[in-house]
Each structure stands twice: as C-alpha cells, then as structure tokens.
Automatic annotation (TrEMBL), chain A:
Residues 23-300 form the CNH domain. CHCR repeats lie at residues 569-728. InterPro entries: Clathrin_H-chain/VPS_repeat, CNH_dom, Vam6/VPS39/TRAP1, VPS39/TGF_beta_rcpt-assoc_1, VPS39/TGFA1_Znf. GO terms for biological process: autophagy; endosomal vesicle fusion; intracellular protein transport. Pfam families: CNH, Vps39_1, zf-Vps39_C. One of its GO terms (cellular component) is cytoplasm. PANTHER family: CNH DOMAIN CONTAINING, TRANSFORMING GROWTH FACTOR-BETA RECEPTOR-ASSOCIATED PROTEIN 1 HOMOLOG. PROSITE patterns: CHCR, CNH. This is CNH domain-containing protein.
TrEMBL record, chain B:
Its cofactor is Mg(2+). It catalyses: GTP + H2O = GDP + phosphate + H(+). Residues 119-151 are annotated as: Disordered. It is a lipid-anchor. InterPro entries: P-loop_NTPase, Rab20, Small_GTP-bd, Small_GTPase. Transmembrane segments: none annotated. Its EC number is 3.6.5.2. This is Ras-related protein Rab-20. Its main location: membrane. GO terms for cellular component: Golgi apparatus; phagocytic vesicle membrane. It comes from Mola mola (Ocean sunfish).
Amino acid sequence: MSVKAFELVPAVERDLLMGDKARINIECIECCGKHLYMGTNDCFIHHFLLDEITTSKGKLSYSAQKLLHKYLGLKKPVAELRAASALERLIVLCDGIVFLVDMVTLETVPSVAGGGAKIRGVNAFTINENPVNGDPFCVEMGVLSSKRRTVQIYMVYEDRVQLVKEVTTPEQPCAVSLDGYFLCLALATQYIILNYNTGASQDLFPYNSEERRPIVKRIGREEFLLAAPGGLGMFANAQGVSQRAPVSWSESVIGAAVCFPYVVALDESFITVHSMLDQQLKQTLSFRDGHILQDFEGKVILASTKAVYVLTPLPLERQIQDLLDSHRVEEALVLTEGAQRNIPKDKFQILHRRILQQAGFIQFGQLQFLEAKEHFRKGQLDVRELISLYPLLLPASSSFTRCHPPLHEFADLNHLAQGDLEKVLRCKKFLISYLGEVRSIEVANGCREDIDTALLKLYAEQDHDSLLDLLASDNACLLADSVPCLEKYHKYFALGLLYHHNDQDSAALQVCLWIRVVDGDLQDSTRSDLYEYIVDFLCFCSNLDLVWKYADWALRKDPTVGVHIFTKRPANRDQSELNPDDVITYLGKHSQALLLYLEHLVLERKTQKEKFHTHLAVLYLERVVSLLSESPADEEELSRARERLQAMLRESDLYRVHFLLGGISLCERATLHGKLGEHDKALHVLVHELRDFPSAEAFCTWASYGQDSSYRQRLFHLLLGVYLDGNELAVGGDGGDLKMAAVDLLNRHGEVFDAVRVLRLLPEGWSLQLLRPFLGRAIRASMHACRTSQIALGLSRSENLQLLHDRRKKPIIVSEKKGCHLCHNTFSEPDVLCLPGAVPVHTHCVAQRVKDSPTKRQLTNSSNHT
Amino acid sequence: MKKPDVKVVLLGDMNVGKTSLLHRYTERKFKDTISTVGGAFYLKQWGPYNISIWDTAGREQFHGLGSMYCRGAAAVILIYDVTNWQSLAELEERFLSLTDTANHDCIYAVVGNKADLTDPKAQQFQDPDETSEDRAECEEGRTEPQLHKQVPPEDAVSFYERILRYKGLDEKSSLPAGKMCFETSAKTGYNVDTLFEALFDLVLPSILRKRNENQVSPTVDLEECRGANNKRARSSCC
C-alpha cells in the first residue's frame, strides 16, 4: 500500500466560518471555480473566494477570503447547494423546498408570474451533467419527492423552474444521480437504473437503504458508483452492467468520488483511496468527523462539520516516482498506463518510456533480468545507460553521459552487487546477452561503436566464444579501446581479426601478431591450429606484399603446410594472380616446398609448360640421386622416389629428355630412350646394364600401350632377341639368367609372339619341357585360328548359296521408290547389295554394319581361344 | 482500458475455489487466496479477442451482486466442490436464478473443483507451464489422498440437464452434458486449461455476432448502395 496520491490541504478554517459559535455546523458545500459556497445548519449560505497558492517549496495551500453570508430565513439547515454558473444561480434545497439564489448577491430569486422558482416537498435533487437537451441556459434537474414514489425532471431557468417529466418508481427513492436519460436511483431495497424517456427500468442489486445510507454517484458518461452491501463500491453503467471490479470500502462509508485513476471514499474516521485500475487500497488518510466528500470539476473537497479541506492529488509523476522508489514496479506501470488518457500523447510517451526504463533498472538491480530486459526494450532504453553501469566498458571516446535525473540509484555494478562476485558475474552475463540482441536493432543506432566495444570487452573478459564471431562479422569496435583490452586478456588471435576488420593495412600487424603467438612469444590458446589458420589466411589474402613477406616464415615452419599458401590459392578470382615463375624463384630456398609446388603445377593443374615439367623431373632425379648416394640407402624411400620419377618420365611428354639423360641413372635412362623411340637402346640398358628383367617386360608393355598388336609384337620380339643374343654372347652362369628370362617371357606373354618366328630363333638345345606352356599356347592359338577360319569359310559358303537361290527364284527389283532395309532411305544408284532373303540394301550400309558387328569386333582381338 | 468483447462469469458457493481456478488459469500457479470481496475481474487476451472473466464472491453477503455480474454474460461457469455435496445443491438453489440476466444464448458449464482430493489422476497431474519453484511450493502441501467424493459426475450431469430445463432449452439442440461438465483441480491444474479453452471456443460465435452487431451502423454507405444498384442493373438487363 502507501502510495502518496493525495494530500489533505485545509481550505477554510473553523475560525473563518463561525468564529466561536460552537453549534454551527456545515451541512453542504458547493464549489464553482474559485467560489466556495457553504450551507449551514442555521440556514445561512456563506460565500468564500478560494485562492490556490503554491509556496516556495512547491507545496500547495489555499487562502480563503469570505465574501458574503446570507440568512435564508427558513430556520432549517441548508440541505443542498448546487451552482448553475451559466445562469448565475445557486439551486438551494432547504426545508424541503428547492429555490434559486443569485450567485453573487445570494438574494433569493423571486417567482415570476405564471411560473414558479420554487419546488416544494423535495427530498433530494440532482443536476444532470450530461443533459440530452442542448440548451446551455437551462439546467436539467432530477428531483425526488419526499412523499410520492416519483422522480420529477425539471428545467431550471434563470428565474423559473419547469416540470418536464415525471416518472414513478416501484418504491420510495432516496438518492439519485442523472446522466442523459438515465436516472440511477437508490430505492428502499435496491438500486435501479431508470430511463425517464422510455420508462424502462433495470434492476441493479439489492441494498437496504434504511440500514446504510446509499451512495449514488455519477462518475462519468453513463457510469455510476454505488455503495453496495458489505462496504463495496460497485460500478454500474446505464445498461446495468458492471465494467470494473468493485472496490472494498468500510461499511460506514459516507461519501465517495472519483478522481481518476482513484476512487476516494470517506467514512467516519478515514479517507480511503483505491485505484480503479487494480482495485487495491492505495492510501489511507486519517480524517475525523468527516461529513462531506464531493468532487467539483475534478477537485475533491471534504468537510467536517466545522472546516473545509481540499484533497489535492499529487502530480502523477511524483506518485509514480514514489512507487518506483519503493520498488513497486508493476503498480507504477499500471498507474502510468492507466493515466494515459489524462496526459497528452507526446508527453505520455516520454513519461511512459522513462518509467519503463526505471522499472527495468529496478528489476535489473533485483537480478530479474527477464523482466528488466522486457522493460528496457519497451522503454527503448539507450543501451549506454546500462553499459555505463559496468566500469570501464564504455569506450573512453564515448560522448555518452547518463541521463539526468538518473534512471536508477546505482553508482556502478560494484555498488549494485555490494561485492558479491556471483552477482557481478550474472549481471555481466545478462549484459552480454542483452547487447548481443540489441546490437542489431534500431535502438543501437548512433551508438554501435559503444555497444560493440563494450561487447568485445565483455567477451574478452569472460572468455566468451562469441568474441570471434563478433570480430569476424561486421562490427564497430573501436581500435583504441579494444586493442589494450584484447592484449590484456591475451586474445591475440581476436586482436588480429580486429585489425583485419578495421583496416587492410593493419593486416600486416595482424599476421605479425599471430606469428608471434605461434612462435610462442605471446600466449593465446584461442586456436590450437593458428599456424594452419595463418597459412589459410595468406592463401586467401589479396595483398601480395603480405603474402611474399610472411610466406617465408610459414615455409620455414612447415614447408608441406606452408606451400598451401601457393597451391591452395583460389584460381580465377579477381584478385591478382601469383606468377608461378615468381613463386618458383621464391621457393628456391625451400626445396621440399618447391617440389610440392611443382607437383601442384604439373600434376594437379596440368600446366603444359616444358620448363615446369623439366624442373620437376630434375628435382625427382636429384632426389633419387641423393638417396642413392646415401649409405646405407633407405630402400623404401628410394623405391618411392624412383617410382615417382619414373611415373613422371613416363607420363609427361613435355620435359627435355636430353637435359635429363646426362645425370640420370640407368633405369630412368631406359625410359628416356623409350621416350625417344630408341627401344633397342632402352632394352639394352635394362637387360644388360641393369639386368632388371621385370622392368624390361614392363617397359615393353608401357612402350606399346595404345599401339597396334604388330607394334607390340615387334617390341616383344626385340626383347626376346636381346635375351637370346645376350645368351649366346654370355659365358657361364651369366647366360643362364638371360635364358631363363627369355623362357619366362615366352611362357608369360606367349600370345604376343609369332610362334613360328620364335621357334626359328630359339637355340636348338633348349628342352621342350622348358617351353611347354609357350608351345601349348601357341598350338592352341594356331588350332583356334584354323577352326575359326573354317567356320567363317562355311558361313560364307552358305551365304553364297542362299544368294544364288534367291536370285534364281525371282528377280530383285530395285527402284527409286524402294527403301533400303538398313537405313530406310531410297536407292539413288543402281549398285545394291542383297542380304540373305533377297533384301536389297545400300552398299555403304552393309559396310557400316559389318564394321559395327560384334563378330567382326571380336575377330580383331582373338585372344579367346576356342 | 481495453473493451472486453465478451463476458464469462464464475459462480459458486464460497470456498469452492473460484478464485483459485481463475488464478491457476491466468497465473499458472496455486496460491492461498483470501475470500473474494465483491468480485474481481480479469481480462484475457484470446487471439484477437478480449474476454473478461468475472470472479464473483461466493459469500452470502454479496449474493445480490450476482445477477448484475451475470448481466450480458456469454458463458457462466457454475462451480461446486466435489467433496461437498451441499455446494452443488447451493448452485441450484441460490446461483442458478442469478443467471436470468445472462444472454439468451449463454453457455453453462458445471465444474466440480478440488478433484485432486479424490481422484489420483487429478492429483498426479502436472501443469506443464508451471514454474518448478511454484510446483515445489505446491507439492509441499500435497498430501496423500483421499477424501470421500461426495458428488459423482452423474449428479453434475443431471444438474446440467435441469439447467437446460430451467432455461427452457431443448436438450437436443443444446450443448451435450458430457461436453459441459468438468472436474478440475486448481491445485494441480488438472483440466483447467481444457475447461477455459473449451468455453472460449464455444463463445466465439457470440463474440463474432456482437462485433457484427456493432458494425451495422445507421449510416448509409453510399458505396455499398451503388454496388447494389449496379448489381440490380446488371440482372435486369436483357
């Protein structure tokens, strides 16, 4: 509870009213602008001028000046007073009589002839503040008769009153309020709404008017406030529906009024203030001997029997501030939003935003981050307000100053957390998530640098993964602030990214920095693969100077990976290409890398440049040579190097053979001879100098690859010749090897050889057993050929016979209208061929068909013997 | 203040759990409530519609206010306590007549609350939207059952049928009792969402009709008239 919504300010002190006359009581009051009228129990009307004074401290006070008092001459208390300011009349109820009094002179207005300015037998009356009749110079009045069960509607003019309507009620009415056509009445046992125009009535709810004094108070257009059983203040509209929840008063409530957004009620000893927005009791003011509570044009005036007070509302901002000061965020917001319609729109928006922001900070202070965030968002908080709570987060260059008056009570985060590190940490985490969300939206406009820099500092300090994401994406981090921070937390990798993002020129600095990290001069464990990352970076770097500058370092570190700078460089991009010649020159010192680069050029990119091919071949060669010179030679390594060299020599046709021949070893020389077409020399080298028979065989296979079978046969015969010649020349055991090689060759590749020629070549002394597999194969091949040709012969014969038969039967007619059975085109020439069954076809079609036929194709490589 | 499109009223004897039920639905928790004074009201955003839910006071003292609350209601939820037979009887004796002021097409639901006290299924139920702290708080007070169930569902059904008869409604054209009788537990949240959401779906036509009524304005729309003329011209042609 305890909002301070109102203050009770004395308006007319007791002395001023009745001096020392103890038995005079105030019976009724009326206030109209500055004019305050009072009716007393001794039938006087007092007229005061009430001036509002604001003291130097901003406090409101009233000074009352007595203008006049007048005895009405009826010796009865003045029961009610109502001003009709447009008519300059006071409507007075005294001793059951309603009559008019001049507002200034307080003289009773005399009745005019024919009409009357008096109504007798009146119990109570009410003024319609929302009349249907539009005449500004008359006032509509509802009157309750003291005896009859009727309500009368009068028009009050300057000098007369006129009855316009009379409606009967089911019971004796005792209190009334009027709005439009709607009378809200308290009857003896219930409240009703009565439309005096149509006579339709609507029961509201039961109420015992004898037990408790009813209250019927119009509080707005077609809405009334009623005292209900159980001390409730019920709202009802003209349709008989309650649109707001009731407020809970005490049972003995005397008067009530609405001063939005509050319902003020008076009972014997208190003034209670309820909010209409949440129905809660907000304030209680002690007020003894309260007697009257009425609102006049928004001003709530109270009277005890002896004195008059004004209940002045505190400014809304002040009330809201009080609520916020006591951390009652929800209530403050409800009050602000509830007051929306009473405040100009632009002013409301500013106020509302500020309240939301303050509310957010209160919740932030209570670590209710979810709620705080929502309020910050709704209140469009300048994020820097929040950032500034965290010491040293805002960049030094930021022009931000906290809003005044301050939105919160915290000096900084340490003040807020009171040394609780856990709290500090949670706040930081919140800020991280909040800034992360906010930086992409509109609020961030104009302070992106501040936000991003703050975020960077937080990420760095908290060792947050998103640091790299932030720096890798578009950001506005300020170098001046970020650099020291990243250095402090050893985020050198991130620092490099920052440089990179900020300025291409700084990229050098970035790489330099990373190199120091890799070299261990600086500590940053962000990336364990930083070296690879640098290589990758250089690989994609468009600044060639940078590449030249740092590639050396990378190559020294690890040539095989470092060379990726050149080999993995994306081709066909707009950026400047590296000239391979330059690269090769550059790589001069790094032989391994050079080799890899050349391999990349020759083998992967298939560069067709003699220079590279030769260079690569030379490098391979050097490698083999150097391995050979080592002792003991690493056999495995050597064979691998050789394989590569040989593959190169064989595959490529571009290198300069003679250039290599000089320094080359025997085996490779054979390949080179083969390249030059000097097969005899090659085989000679292989067989006699290297004595590497499997290589010799492989050479034949390689050299004849893609050539026709006769070429192949020639090569193999050549090899056989070399073997046999050597065998003859050789002496002792040496010859045995060659002989065995020749036998193996024949047995293995028998199908290539011309068996007849071989038999002629072979020395007489060789045993049959030795050549058995070869001979067996040769005989079978010969048999196969013989039989196949016999079959072919037979088939041809039968074909021929068929043709003869066809011709004899009937003539074959060929005309321009007849089509060829194979291509379906017509014949244009007399030359035709006849297929079996007397089918004429083009000669060229048959030729084509024979060429494509599977039998024909099979005949060409008849290795499959029958 | 947002204007409600439609009104739903909770009625029932004191201590049957009207406020708790509304609480469970709107705030997803069960907490101690004090006896409602007069009445309270809650505005529920249901899609594009605002539904005002009135929580009335069950105390005899405020009984007179009931018919005013019910005025213009589109749905009335009559709540009893399953462990208290009298609470169902009271509905018929005292509260049913209050609904005379409700809309003609008002929907009635009969709800037996406190089902967790008698029904293990309701007791074991867990409100998925409830925060764990709230649940823990609630579970502390969770005692092994089982009070005697005084009101069998059949009684609620026959009461619902009597409501229809009282309203002079045809049983066949009205919503079936099986759909309009619920047993709920405000404590565990059992059936609470089901109840309110089923009801909101059913009052939707009522909302739409109300909106349409408001749209029929006495102003003559010239555009509309011209459109009508055109149509007539076209149809009469040839």
